[in-house]
Request: fold
Amino acid sequence: MGAHHREFDKNFQTEIKINGKKLPLNHFIQETVANVIVGLLKTLKEVDEAEESIEIKIKKMKETKTVDAHTYP
Reply:
């Protein structure tokens, strides 16, 4: 590899789709996105650290709502 390339251990296969279209992600971005999500989820009491698969769906709401941040939808 060239002088500007680095190698690292890959632990996750990450996929992001926007409006059904798969977004191309290089290995570094796949790993970064996965580590951010896994790190966030580890702070939740209901999540087991050994989860094999995580799916997240984010959908933009038609209208903005003001909600109490400490309640569940």
Observations:
- The longest strand covers residues 16-18.
